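User: Show me an example of a complex going from sequences to structure tokens.

Assistant: Sure. Here are the input components:
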Amino acid sequence: MTKNYASEISSPLSSNHEDYLKAIYLLETRGQKVTNSALSEYIGFTPASATNMVKKLAQMDLVVYERYQGVTLTDTGRRVALEVLRHHRLLELFLHKTLDIPWDRVHDEAERLEHVISESLEDAIAASLGYPKVDPHGDPIPSKSGEINHTPSLPLSRAETGRTYTLVQVLSHDNERLAYLGTLGLHPDVEIHLQERAPFDGPVLLVVAGVAHALAFEMAGLLQVAPLPAD
Amino acid sequence: MTKNYASEISSPLSSNHEDYLKAIYLLETRGQKVTNSALSEYIGFTPASATNMVKKLAQMDLVVYERYQGVTLTDTGRRVALEVLRHHRLLELFLHKTLDIPWDRVHDEAERLEHVISESLEDAIAASLGYPKVDPHGDPIPSKSGEINHTPSLPLSRAETGRTYTLVQVLSHDNERLAYLGTLGLHPDVEIHLQERAPFDGPVLLVVAGVAHALAFEMAGLLQVAPLPAD
DNA sequence: CCTACAATTTAGCCATGACTAAAAATTACG
DNA sequence: CGTAATTTTTAGTCATGGCTAAATTGTAGG
């Protein structure tokens, strides 16, 4: 299990180290400052444990940490986080496409597998999938060198009525929600016609594959869409 | 990662627990009594560590352990060992067939993956492979209910000269040895004609796919063969 | 600007499971 | 059958990384 980032790092990283780094990355992406309590809530440990771990990550130069001020990834830390995220998303797609595992069940499995696959297995998986760019939820898969490109998109809840969009990304890892959305045919790449929006952030009326559905406002906020090219 | 054996077991098992149980199973299969030092050597820890762990496994009713007398699997312990072994061998075959990973590189990968795949992923893998009976080395894959059938076979080093055999199993996990055997075309299911044997456990002359090779006695001892049905 | 409240960190505890060194039991041989 | 050599276990240490409770720091409102 020689890792790509192995050369840059003093001591080997546990699954937990990797989970923390991944969490910090994802929280940083959300924009706000990453406090230890936000981090602890995200990973499901107590704030004290997060402080503890963050200190260790700082010693390894994976994060910059100043007491009471929150935490930031270093370049090396970001490399690690992106590698884990690459593993995760490649695995999700692989499980979905190669083993027909429904998109609402790939996350938990990938969550464990991501920490134990070797670089060469990662490569083999990427090759067998044709070097894909997004996972089954439309989340971008970082490249081997750590680049990640976010396709421009907007939440369906803010889109214009009367227009047709392509669904590019579903911002949820909640199994039940995903299963529900799946029953409506709402997967990335599907076309959605936005028929009507109730006022005051009310539900949304949309048409997918000729069938009309009502969707709660907050649910529509999870659906990132892009206008059709010729629209 | 709800395990099949979960219902029978008090506390969850770590990867290490599973590795110990698997090792005990494999050593038991070899026939001799499983001492803690044999066990410790097999798994690569000190004898003291093995004693330590064996005590814990005994508390969990996974093994029967009597001081200075070695260790034996209970029925539950054997169930766990066979489940891990099933994971391992299914994964080896899956990596080999689905991702074209050479047979001399599947072992180490499977060694880590076996501890983290869910029962449902195990099922999906087994189904996608058509419920196979053996892994790429010819080792039998235990069934979901814990049955395992050893095809009758004999080591090539004890076979009769002048006859043709089917290679059914290669008893080695050493990467280099496997790679070497692979270059000779020696994979399970291949036909081997045993041409000649040097006396006093000397090398063996055999023909594989029309090509003659000399093989050291000990290497031939790793090749389990069965006589051709009509021979 | 000072106090009260919330967020954060520290201190100290626990379980896990490796290790070494010393003690105890077993085995083997004269 | 008793003693020496070997095997095995025990005792005690360490690192990891979670936890709770207490102390500290930051922040917001009067």
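The lines above are the inputs; the final block is the predicted structure for all four components together. The mean pLDDT of chain B is 94.
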